[in-house]
Design a protein that fits this description.
9 strands; 208 residues; Rossmann fold; single chain; alpha/beta; 31% helix; four-stranded mixed β-sheet; oxidoreductase activity; five-stranded mixed β-sheet
Length: 208
C-alpha cells in the first residue's frame, strides 16, 4: 500500500488526495496507514497537522464476486477514532457526500456499493452541493418498526417495508448515510416512535 502511504504524506502537507482501494476486502493491507497513521495524526500532533485524505472502496455482497471482493468490513473502521466512514445509497447522496468528504479536514473512508454501480440510476445536479457528514436520512415514514440500513441495503429495506405494508405493518426506513459520525438522534427519535428496531447489514454468514 505504498501509494496510500504517499497520499497520507500529501494530505499532511496540505493536499486533498483521493486514493482508491480496489475492493474493501483488500483494505487489511492498509490498516497501518489508515488506523495508526492517518486517523491519529491530529491527536498525535496535538492539532498541528490534519489529514484531509479520502479513500474510496467498493464493497458489499449480492454480486457473485470472488473471495475478498465483496467483504463488508466497515465495522473495523467505524471503531477507529479520527476516521470518518461514509456509505451512500443513492447517486445523489454519493456526489454530495463525496464533496463533503473531500472538504473535510480529517480522513474519510468512502464506501461505494458494488451492487449499485450498474443497477441504480438517478438524476444528479451538475453543480456543486454538499451533504453534511453525520446526518441520516428518513427515507420512509412509518409507525410500527424502524429499519436501519446503509449503502445498497437501503433499497432492500425499502422493498421489505413495501412487503410489510401489504401485511398492515408500517415500517420506517432510515438511511444512515454516514456510519461515523453517527446520527444517534435520528435513530432514537424514530425508535421512540415505533418501539421496535431492526438493523440490516451486509455481513458474513458464518458457518461452523
Amino acid at each position: 500500500m505504498k501509494s496510500l502511504q504517499n497520499c497520507f504524506g500529501l494530505a499532511v502537507y496540505g493536499w486533498h488526495p483521493i486514493a482508491e482501494i480496489q475492493f474493501l476486502g483488500f483494505s487489511v493491507q492498509a490498516f497501518a496507514q489508515l488506523l495508526l497513521q492517518a486517523a491519529r495524526i491530529r491527536m498525535r500532533s496535538q492539532g498541528r497537522f490534519t489529514c484531509p485524505l479520502v479513500v474510496r472502496a467498493p464493497f458489499g455482497g449480492g454480486v457473485h464476486s470472488f473471495e475478498l471482493h465483496s467483504d463488508a468490513l466497515e465495522a473495523h473502521f467505524v471503531h477507529t477514532p479520527g476516521l470518518k466512514v461514509v456509505a451512500p445509497a443513492t447517486p445523489y447522496d454519493a456526489k454530495g457526500l463525496l464533496l463533503a468528504a473531500i472538504a473535510d479536514p480529517d480522513p474519510v473512508l468512502f464506501l461505494e456499493p458494488l451492487r449499485s454501480y450498474r443497477a441504480r440510476r438517478q438524476e444528479v445536479p451538475d453543480g456543486s452541493y454538499i451533504l453534511p457528514l453525520g446526518n441520516a436520512a428518513l427515507v420512509r415514514a412509518g409507525s410500527d418498526i424502524t429499519i436501519i440500513a446503509w449503502s445498497a441495503l437501503v433499497d432492500s429495506a425499502l422493498k421489505a417495508a413495501e412487503f410489510l405494508a401489504d401485511e398492515g405493518i408500517e415500517a420506517e426506513v432510515i438511511d444512515l448515510r454516514t456510519l461515523s459520525p453517527f446520527d444517534a438522534d435520528t435513530i432514537i427519535h424514530s425508535v421512540e416512535k415505533t418501539g421496535r428496531a431492526i438493523v440490516v447489514h451486509d455481513a458474513f454468514e458464518i458457518l461452523y
